[in-house]
Structure formats: C-alpha cells, structure tokens
Amino acid sequence: MKLYIHTDIEGVAGMVHFEDRNDQTTEGYFKRLRMHKLLTGEVNAAIEGALAAGVKEILVNDSHGSGY
User: Which residue, 45, 19, 22, is CA-closest to 34?
Assistant: First the structure.
C-alpha cells in the first residue's frame, strides 16, 4: 500500500495564530520554530503509524510557502 500525506503548517495542532513570515522579532522566530517542531512531530507520528500498519511507500508534500 502507498500513502500520500499533504500537510501545511497552518493546520498544526497546538498553535492558534497564523504564521507571520514578516515577523522578524525573536518572539516570532521562536514561534515559527515551535510550529516547525510540532508539524515535524505530527508528520513523523503519521509515518510511524502508517509503517506499523504495513504501508510500504510514503510521499509527504509540505504545501507551505513555495511547496505545492
């Protein structure tokens, strides 16, 4: 079985504010860093579950920014 995962950072659990890429403050940097870590954890958890269920091939598409 194959699996396609399409993700975008604005949907990450644990964040309630839209990412502002123009926010160049230290606070903005750490907010984006937290969002990236949360999203990476979510995608990795989905991959681990899929592999445990027998999925043989996984493609992840991050559509944030220039990804689409």
Answer: 19
Output the pTM of the full model. Answer: 0.80
Over the chain (68 residues), what is each successive 10-residue block's mean pLDDT? Answer: 92 77 86 90 97 98 71
62's tokens: 């991050």
| Residue 47: CB atoms within 10 Å | 15
Contacts of 62 (CB under 8 A, 6+ apart): 7, 8, 9
Q: How far apart are CA 66 and CA 60, in angstroms?
A: 15
Q: What whole-number distance in Å separates Cα of residue 37 and Cα of residue 41? A: 6
Quote the tokens at residue 49. 């579950």
* Domain hosting residue 50, numbered range: 2-62
The structural domain count of the chain equals 1
